[in-house]
Fold alpha-1,2-Mannosidase.
Amino acid sequence: MTTPALLPLSGRRIPTLSPGAASFPHHRATLRLSEKFILLLILSAFITLCFGAFFFLPDNSKHKRFDLGLEDVLIPHIEAPKGAKHPGGQVVIHGQGDHDEHRHSLRDKIRADHERALQEAKEKLRKSRDELRAEIQTEKSKVLEDLKKEGPKPLPPVPMPKVVGVNDGDPGEPDIKEKRDKIREMMKHAWDSYRQYGWGHNELKPLAKKGHSTNIFGNSQMGATIVDALDSLYMMGLHDEFKDGQEWIEQNLDFSVNAEVSVFEVNIRFIGGLLAAYYLSGQEVFKVKAVQLAEKLLPAFNTPTGIPWAMVNLKSGVGRNWGWASAGSSILAEFGTLHMEFVHLTYLTGNPVMHIRKLLAKMDRPNGLYPNYLNPRTGRWGQHHTSVGGLGDSFYEYLLKAWLMSDKTDTEARKTYDDAIEAIERHLIRKSNGGLTFIGEWKNGHLERKMGHLTCFAGGMFALGADGSPDDKAGHYLQLGAEIAHTCHESYDRTVLKLGPEAFKFDSGLEAVAVRQNEKYYILRPEVIETYWYMWRFTHDPKYRQWGWEAAQAIDKYCRVSGGFSGVKDVYSSNPTYDDVQQSFFLAETLKYLYLLFSSDDLMPLESWVFNTEAHPLPVLRRALRPLQSGGH
Ligand code: DMJ
């Protein structure tokens, strides 16, 4: 036999076909049959090899886009070419010479990668399943060992911002404390269920009792729920659970995975979650992991404008946009929701990382509004659709919070926020016939009288931005926040389950109710409760605690199952079906805001902490801490 390499392919039957067996004197016919069998085996092995090799090839679908003339924006930002450093940071715009050079070296790299992959495939196919398994195990342990040996990359020593009010928050009154304990118990149920059935997966399927992952994290298993939940666990005093999560992160969280992830989601959940866990606990590992991950996201910024791609492959660094986005655009709420986390990364590492706001400031805006879509290649707006809900929301939120986080020194951010909100009030905010204030959506010159659950966060944002608003309009913005909170509460109160629908209308006699079946679901979202909490902090009106408690009870009654908490498909049905997903933001945001609502104000005081859009608290960077930085970022 000249094909020992193919032996494992035929598995356990092969030993009877050893060379010795083939030279047995008796039965020529049997021998011929064996020969035929061997030939057949070789042939089938060869076909399997080719077929297998095909799957081992690196995904070149994105690279093919070179042929469409988009090479300048598809070159992974692995190393910046000499002299091409963007004045504001690491975002690089290539010249034509650099394009060609990059194009050729990238092609060579792809070719070499393909050859290497083919070779690896061939070698892999020679091995038995057990051998492969053992090999994978050895490789895994080696990587871990190396990581341990290398130790974390040393980061420059920077003064730790003053961390205040991260524990306790005992509300004093026994009935409020009881409610807070109930929220803590719900957190424990959500965490324990994930721990038991979905550990290491991104999310949990609480009915199927197994792990769950969505396309925002590619096909990875990066433990999104663990990272997202850490700071909530810490604040709630669930320290054993926190330790458990920390241990998993230390041992398993690895970002060199071949997964195409959403830059926005990874930033707000992972980088935000890791940074918050670092500031709360002081454990270096979280800071190191946050910085490692940010490095993996940087290739997404390699576009002619510096506006990042929506998605990036963590391993190859190749980026692209969502197929559904208008004219190949990046999304306002996605590229506009990186600032807070990256300012902190800048602070911790000393490397400036991005400049997006500058580009936006130069652009014309229809009616002073920011459209949701912006093409990262041309720097032009896509479809003129403006929303304070999905696709736009956290862009506005981060302008305000950038100002707060900078100890109110980033006045450019504050001014941009004020101007944007003024335009939003003029064109998007209306009162319904029944007297409910709502925020509609602007689509090509027409106001759609529909508001999303996501938009409800704006009540809290208006209240948070009241102090410092121009022309002494603080009272006005606090009032606006209260009106939005009221409208969103109505959207809950007008359902059977007392849980809010995904979107609700103010049209043709409808007041804060969903019409279409695909707008009637509730997926454990936090925005309404988030607004209750901010309104509570600024007014101490007990109705906000009352409304928060109504929501908590409804969640416990209709979304709780033995394997965790699930979203429901129709909040107007007394017998709803489950969507079987326990979203990671349920632990990061919904339960955290509820817990804070029933805590005293000295837990996470808003003078010292700014919550990112996934409810991960980041400390205010006091002026005194930034001697080398001037004014805004
Ligand atoms: C969260 O991931 C964040 O709040 C984000 O800004 C928008 N939506 C979800 C929760 O609804």
In short: The longest helix spans residues 96-125.
